[in-house]
Design goal:
204 residues; alpha+beta; 434 Repressor (Amino-terminal Domain); 9% strand
Length: 204
Amino acid sequence: MDQLKIGKFIAACRKKENLTQMQLAEKLGITDRAVSKWETGKAMPDSAVMLELCAILKITVNDLLSGEVVTMENYNQEMEKKLLELVKEKEDKDKMLLKAEIIVGIVAFIPLLLATIFVAYNQNIEEWKRGVIVLASIVPFLISVPFLIKIEQKAGYYKCAECGHRYVPTFKSVLMAPHMGMTRKMTCPACGKRSWQKKVLTKE
């Protein structure tokens, strides 16, 4: 989506309704700084206020996401285009999240690896000190685990090997599932069968 175009459109619609940024912000229960960020293309309206914003500006959500008033002639075409753009944006964000998961996992694992090597090559260290070193190196990894699982849960979908259904599982099901890389053994909510399910980025 062209955030700059959408921002200019919001500003034009606001002025058409004879509203200042402050007045629009007050109606939405937000700060005028947020409105300013929208209009300069630095941010997009949150989904929580989008419908109310459109009602105030007397436009549709499709108009807002298009950055212009969409006529009936090209309504379906524009709607399809926006949906495809949203899907593409989600896929790109999911790819970035999964890459971040790998990087964070590696960074969190390095202290444990170094501590293990250090302890292995320094046999003359007292047992309690060895324990403290290993335990201290485990802490960063343990702290990172919930964040890594949350990323894996939210980014993309899991595909059932039995029926092909793609879905976003619960945090608990991902946490408790045996896994090999990004493939986890879980129960499909559609067919109820348990299988090794691969991580995929697209819904269809």
